[in-house]
Design goal:
By secondary structure, the protein is mostly beta strands. The protein has one helix at about 255-265, and strands spanning about 1-5, 10, 20, 45-50, 55, 60-65, 70-75, 85-95, 105-110, 130-135, 140-150, 155-160, 170-175, 190-200, 215, 235-245, 265-270, 275-285, 290-295, 305-310, 310-315, 320, 325-330, 335-340, 350-355, 365. It has three domains: about 1-25, no CATH class; about 30-265, Sandwich (Jelly Rolls); about 265-365, Immunoglobulin-like (Sandwich), CATH 2.60.40. The protein contains one helix and 26 strands. The strands form five sheets. The protein has a seven-stranded antiparallel sheet with strand order 5-6-9-14-11-12-15, with no helix packed on it. A seven-stranded antiparallel sheet has the order 22-21-25-18-19-24-23, with no helix packed on it. A six-stranded antiparallel sheet has the order 4-7-8-16-10-13, with no helix packed on it.
Length: about 375
């Protein structure tokens, strides 16, 4: 048999058959995490959205400014026969047909610089990248996709057209490599992949910047339709892939457990059932116990933390007591959970104490998002 090593034609066998490897020649070619929208740790639907932030589908953030009111959901409407089970949906619930100059609505993914070094950005060997995705909307017309260099304040935009209402269409956009501005080799945001839905005149009054250049706001989203102008408007997106290539290859499907772990690097929510064990700690005096909580996945950075629900501390004779709680010494791997002011001060210093969930609503949110 013959083997071609450039990844374009696969393996040819003596019987004339060919095993193609062109579709996915390299593992983890997709720079987008959760591009098929199947991980949604925060929940499957959030209504009344009027501000920037993360809401349902993991790793997809909204940047927002005066652009109506929205519901974001994980939807089961997907293109037929493509292997997808879920999409991300944005549904307009309060319209804004008269945008202010600074109005904006962008859904984006933020990518760490240390995951982008192979783009060779800022060198003469800078690589082109291709963005591909499936999209469906009732509102036809021109939309803008943008790659934004957060380290060097540079950007490049491409337009695409939704041609048929209420119909899944695949879009493919290739962005040239940028020979100016290297990306930081760190865990901070270096590139943003922006999908525009709304843009005011401050962002549309110039000439669309289809080549890499320093940011001029007026050139970023020229021609963008106003998806916020009617409460009938919606958009669904799935199969989003950004790869080093001059053309789009088939979407890279990642096993569920691996994709969940990639998402949990940035955000993890741990939910407990009634009576489940959070941790076993140690009493340091009669009213205080300490114990460690370990994260499932090492976080991108030291996270912010919140605990909801009622938790009890059990002492060495298996009696439960209510307590207040604080987080201390958080790291990318764990945090110390302190049970303070344990009722009636029943603990014995040096003895083990167990922390239990008192109801099914106990959860800990661990946020290390970009």
């Amino acid at each position: 048999m013959s083997i071609l090593l450039d990844g374009t034609q696969g393996i040819d066998f003596n019987d004339g058959s060919n095993q193609s490897t062109a579709a996915t020649p390299y593992a983890r070619k997709n720079l987008i995490i959760n591009g098929d929208m199947r991980i949604a740790q925060r929940g499957t639907s959030t209504a009344s959205i009027t501000s920037s932030g993360y809401y349902t589908v993991d790793r997809w953030r909204l940047d927002y400014g005066t652009a109506g009111t929205w519901t974001m959901s994980q939807d089961t409407d997907v293109p037929t026969g493509q292997g997808f089970a879920t999409s991300m949906k944005w549904d307009c619930t309060t319209a804004n047909g008269s945008l202010s100059a600074g109005s904006a609505m962008i859904i984006n993914q933020r990518i760490e610089g240390q995951n982008l070094q192979h783009l060779k950005k800022g060198t003469s060997n800078a690589e082109s990248v291709t963005l591909s995705f499936w999209v469906k909307s009732n509102k036809t017309g021109t939309y803008i996709a943008e790659i934004y260099d957060n380290d060097n304040t540079r950007q490049i935009s491409k337009s695409y057209t939704i041609a048929s209402a209420d119909t899944w269409e695949k879009k493919t956009l290739t962005f040239a490599g940028d020979t100016t501005g290297t990306l930081g080799n760190d865990n901070d945001t270096s590139l943003l992949v922006n999908l525009w839905l709304v843009a005011g005149t401050d962002l549309t009054s110039g000439t669309l910047n289809t080549s890499w250049a320093s940011v001029t706001a007026a050139n970023r989203a020229v021609g963008q339709v106003n998806l916020a102008d009617n409460t009938a408007n919606y958009i669904n997106i799935t199969g989003c892939q950004l790869e080093v290539n001059d053309s789009a290859s088939d979407f890279e499907f990642v096993p569920y457990d691996m994709e969940l772990a990639r998402c949990q690097r940035y955000y993890e929510v741990v939910r407990y059932t009634l009576g489940s064990l959070l941790t076993v700690g140690q009493a340091i005096n009669s009213a205080t116990a300490i114990g460690d909580l370990d994260w499932t996945v090492t976080k991108r950075a030291v996270p912010t933390l919140s605990l909801t629900g009622t938790v009890y501390v059990w002492n060495n004779i298996s009696t439960s007591f209510t307590a207040s709680y604080s987080f201390y010494y958080a790291s990318v791997n764990k945090v110390r959970l302190d049970a303070n002011s344990v009722s009636t001060s029943p603990l014995v210093a040096g003895y083990a104490s167990a922390y239990y969930a008192a109801d099914a609503s106990v959860s800990i949110k661990i946020d290390a998002e970009l």
